[in-house]
Design goal:
The chain contains 14 helices and no strands. By secondary structure, it is mainly alpha-helical. It has a single domain, classed as Farnesyl Diphosphate Synthase (Orthogonal Bundle). Helix 9 packs across helix 12. It is globular.
């Protein structure tokens, strides 16, 4: 594996979100490889679910990834991300079932039906959120700890990401808006790409519900990875802006920069390190 190839994957993942770049500052070099490669790998699976218009193509790609995780667990990794991850002793200690479960949940997400309302939307993304949260917990904390909070935070954050990408969605995955909100505001699926008063009202209504759910999940007990905490804090801030903004989608898409974000990330890093088990700190 070329160091340049891995660096390219990590740079692409990091530069897609300013919050990731900020969190990167608080990770040690070996942590950047371990946790960055995991996040970039999960991102590859999510892209297959959400960005591919042909479910058969997405299923084939995820099927390859499932085989790759099995190969990697046997010391036969072929992809730069898995080669990097499984060169790390802590990642190798994670049972292969956690890796394949995350891919299986991604495959299951390809067949999800459009949700009727916000509760159904959360229920639809929860299996994928659970698989990702359990894998993250193993890699980030070195042992199995309570994952209920991580699951709920990951589920709501996935819905926020779907909503944020409303105007550029590739056609895969679940609709960014539940059916009841589309009906309430008279929106057809082909109208979601256009900025209209109806779409703004529907996005604002959805942001209200997502902010409530994410605020609830944030108060639950249990550890979160540093990247998850930073993303959660940004999403909460963005959702609160969106509920009051004239253009809620633009408010959701606005990056949070400056000293305020840096300070919150530093505080999150201190909390995260306090949760880590001794064997996960090497």
């Amino acid at each position: 594996m070329s160091d340049d190839t891995l660096a390219s994957y990590l740079t692409h993942w990091r530069e897609a979100d300013p919050q990731r770049a900020t969190a990167w500052l608080f990770l040690r070099p070996h942590e950047r490889i371990r946790f960055g490669a995991l996040a970039a790998l999960q991102n590859e699976w999510l892209k297959a679910v959400h960005d591919m218009r042909e479910p058969q193509v997405a299923a084939a790609k995820l099927g390859w990834w499932r085989e790759e995780m099995q190969h990697a667990a046997q010391g036969e990794a072929r992809h730069p991300l898995t080669q990097s991850l499984f060169a790390d002793a802590h990642a190798r200690e994670v049972p292969v079932a956690y890796w394949t479960a995350a891919v299986d949940a991604s495959l299951l997400a390809l067949t999800a039906v459009p949700p009727a309302d916000g509760a159904a939307q959360l229920a639809a993304v929860r299996p994928l959120a659970q698989a990702f949260a359990e894998l993250e917990t193993r890699v980030w904390f070195g042992t199995q700890v309570a994952t209920a909070r991580a699951v709920e935070v990951a589920a709501v954050m996935q819905l926020v990401a779907n909503l944020r990408a409303l105007a550029t969605a590739g056609g895969g995955g679940l609709p960014p808006l539940p059916m009841n909100l589309m009906a309430r505001h008279g929106l057809a699926a082909d109208e979601l790409m256009r900025d209209t008063p109806a779409r703004r009202a529907a996005v604002r209504d959805h942001a209200v519900g997502l902010e409530r759910e994410l605020a609830r999940a944030a108060t639950m007990p249990g550890p979160l990875s540093l990247l998850r905490v930073v993303g959660m804090q940004h999403d909460l801030h963005a959702l609160r802006l969106a509920t009051r903004a004239v253009d809620p989608l633009a408010a959701l898409q606005k990056p949070e920069r400056g000293f305020r974000g840096l300070l919150k990330t530093w505080q999150a890093a201190r909390i995260w390190r306090g949760h880590r088990s001794p064997e996960a700190t090497a």
